[in-house]
Protein: Cytochrome bd-I oxidase subunit CydX
Amino acid sequence: MWYFAWILGVGFAAAFAIINAMWLESVSDQEHWDDSNR
Structure:
């Protein structure tokens, strides 16, 4: 059953990377809007 743990680990790593990229885009957009509204 090592393959189950391997697939689960790869899935979590991919999900973490996707969520991290979405968070980074959100923060950069928020900073852009904060700067343009001043």
